[in-house]
Amino acid sequence: MRLNFLTGFTIVVGVIGTAILSFFWTPFDPELVDASKPRIGLGEQGHLLGTDQFGRDLFSQLMVGSRTALFVGVLAVAIAVLIGIPIGGIAAARRGWVEDVLMRLSDVVYAFPPVLLAILLVAAARPGTAAAMVAIGVAYVPIVARVTRGAALSIYQRDFVAAARGYGRRGPFIFMRHVLPNIASVLIVQVTVLFALAILAEAALSFLGIGTQPPTASWGRSLRDAQTFIRLSPRLAFWPGVAIATTVLGFNLLGDGIRDALDPRLEVGR
Amino acid sequence: MSSSGPASSESELLVIRDLTVTAGSSTLVSGVSFELGSGQKRGLIGESGSGKTLTALAIMGLLPEGLEATGSIRYEGRELLGLREKHLVGLRGNAMSMIFQEPMTALNPVMRIGRQIAEPLRIHRGLSTSEAHSVVVELLERVGIDEPQRRLKSFPHELSGGQRQRVMIGMALACGPSIVVADEPTTALDVTVQAQVLDLLRDQVVANDAALLLITHDLPVVSNMTDEVVVMREGSIVETGATAAVFSNPSTAYARELVDSVPPMSRATDVAPKPATPLPTDAPIITLRNVEKLFALRRASLFDKPQPLRAVQDVSFDVHRGETFGIVGESGSGKSTIAKMMMGLEWATAGQIMIDGTEIHKEGDHSVLHHTVQMVFQDPNGSLDPRLRVGDVIAEPLRALHIDGDHDARVLELLDAVAMSADSIHRFPHEFSGGQRQRIAIARALAPGPKIIVADEPVSALDMSVQMVTLELLDQLKRDLDLTMVFISHDLSVVHEICERVIVLEHGEIVESGPVGSVFGSPQAAYTQMLVDAIPRLAVRN
């Protein structure tokens, strides 16, 4: 459906726009603690979504939080793609024991849930956005590797690859020139979905207290801070939740839309 | 029932009037009208894109979404177009059934064939599982499946291509339909299997007193199987008439062109024996000595020993400069593996391969080999990278092999050599027809200025009239550029046309070799004889 794509695209552009805007302008300083007005309600004293228990403006916090979400998403996905595509590509190109070793190794990584991997990593290093990002990225490497391998395998069977070998092209060149462009559509869809999952994972890690550390704003941390007051001020948990859900939905819809747009089966046959 | 039908067509089982199929604003089939009488056998022929399959799908009410049919299709006087799906379901597989081209995809891969054949019986005849069982066994016996009791429990992938198509025929006939629509039922099969399956189809259709609508691009097949024929082109009917009359004396230029494109060996009349060219005395440009290729199959489970598959064994032959050398065999005979070994895409596990005086080894520099041997593949859809423009497709070998000179000029020269216009360079492969794409692939193969072209089934994926043109082009280029050509094909009549000498492969071994005229004219090996006998011949009435 075109509607999927348009909705997803609008949401994603909105989130990116908000993140960029937050560098230059927010209604209030998101880190400004004002003990005189804790947990005030919607729209009071100019606070669009009210304030949290420290009197910080919730809307400004959410705006800045979108930066963290996107930052983690971009870098985690970059890690996953930069490691996963070569692994999947080499496995598909070489077959045999190389493929077995690479894919079984990635199965081992795949067996660890991202959160568990992050806890391990944080135990070894320090909690923070960077650790969360690396953990999420590494956890998604097997997913990218598998998708790449599967799609590349079918391309490697095609005669144009045999033709390229027949005029002397070698492995990496064939992969970059002939295989990658032909599997790009599959990978783009996978990447948008992973992006949504990464944002969700960052929120989860921050909620557990092993992701983004104060005072940096993060949707997951806002949610964690709101937990104590969930009965007194449920809206403190509600709005970060809405931000996370909308953004994840946006990226998923965008991924669906791109997949539909690139799916040759949807073209009307001659 | 026939009271609602026009008086003129009361005796006809199926009457199609002015059938038009559109997709949005484009018309794919326009104004098609013909009838199918009870027990009649009618062929529907035409090249790809002629609308013959769409016509069949419209009859079955199976047009893909987005396509719309107008006009009239009457079955026993009852209008089928616009009929609700639930009424069509009652007819499909019951009164009318269809046999598809590729039985591997037409059969459900996760359903045992017994249950699959029983399905139409259970739906339309209301038979219970046990009642259906005995009918299915009998059906399988009738379509020539050995040990039907055991085969009931097989999955489609456990059967050979020919057996799968037999199962499809059994399924199509299960409910005793009055019309069988067969869409290219044997195109995906080897020639010897094709002959058996066609015999079976004809016998079964006759035994069931059903009418047959046979859709194919293969004229000899149609001439043997049908009484009446409809020739289609670009969505419209060009000619109709008795099959023998149309083929012996076509009244339109297009039908004449189709008939003329049938290679002489596929004609009923005896082929003038092809004189054997004297064997050249110079040193051969290609020499294979006792070549063997084993493939290590993936083991079925972790603890199994990997079973080697012997794709090629003890193959020896010489090809001389300027020759067109044929390699013939059915699928799995090892002919493509031999091609790949000559190209340096696979390596022999034993024996010796010499190309232009140099032995080829897995190790070492292969740039001389790549300069010397180039390949033309079977499927021009698969052999051209869809993401590259034609100019880049042809220039790639020049860049890869660091060939000096003006690449742009060379690309234009090559396009000209294969009779393609210069503006093709900016377009993508999918913008061209199959024949044009194959010419682009030929241009690419010629780019490094090879001495040898290995052509692996270069015309099998093309329409018959395009086959002719492409073969003539290959032959012309071979003479102009002083090339040696290894021509691999399952199609004996094509090999007979263009090759001088030939080897016949069965299960990776050479069973016969020699000049084309004598190998096909008086085959010594039983297998060659079987291949020659299985060629469908164009039956013409004089």
Topology:
The complex is a heterodimer of chains A (270) and B (542).
Chain A: H1 2-24, H2 58-94, H3 96-110, H4 114-124, H5 129-156, H6 159-166, H7 171-207, H8 219-227, H9 235-262
Helix pairs in contact in A: 1-2, 1-9, 2-3, 2-5, 2-7, 3-5, 4-5, 5-7, 7-8, 7-9, 8-9
Chain B: E1 12-23, E2 26-37, E3 41-45, H1 52-60, E4 67-75, E5 78-79, H2 85-91, E6 96-99, H3 103-106, H4 113-124, H5 129-142, H6 148-151, H7 161-173, E7 179-183, H8 191-207, E8 211-216, H9 219-225, E9 228-233, E10 236-242, H10 243-248, H11 253-260, E11 286-296, E12 308-319, E13 324-328, H12 335-343, E14 350-355, E15 358-359, H13 367-372, E16 373-376, H14 380-383, H15 390-400, H16 407-417, H17 434-446, E17 452-456, H18 464-480, E18 484-489, H19 492-498, E19 501-506, E20 509-515, H20 516-521, H21 526-534
Parallel strand pairs in B: 3-8, 3-9, 6-7, 7-8, 13-18, 13-19, 16-17, 17-18
Antiparallel strand pairs in B: 1-2, 1-4, 4-5, 9-10, 11-12, 11-14, 14-15, 19-20
Helix pairs in contact in B: 4-5, 4-7, 5-7, 7-8, 8-21, 15-16, 15-17, 16-17, 17-18
How would you describe the overall organization of this protein?
Chain A has 270 residues and is mainly α. Chain A has a single domain, classed as MetI-like fold (Orthogonal Bundle), CATH 1.10.3720. In chain A, helix 1 crosses helix 9. The longest helix of chain A has 37 residues. Chain A is elongated. The C terminus of chain A is likely disordered. Chain B is of the alpha/beta class. Chain B has two domains: 259 residues, P-loop containing nucleotide triphosphate hydrolases (Rossmann fold, 3-Layer(aba) Sandwich), CATH 3.40.50.300; 197 residues, P-loop containing nucleotide triphosphate hydrolases (Rossmann fold). In chain B, strands 6-7-8-3-9-10 form a six-stranded mixed β-sheet, sandwiched between helices. Chain B starts with 11 loop residues before the first strand and ends in an 8-residue tail after the last helix. Chains A and B meet through helix 6 and helix 7 of A and strand 16 and helix 15 of B.
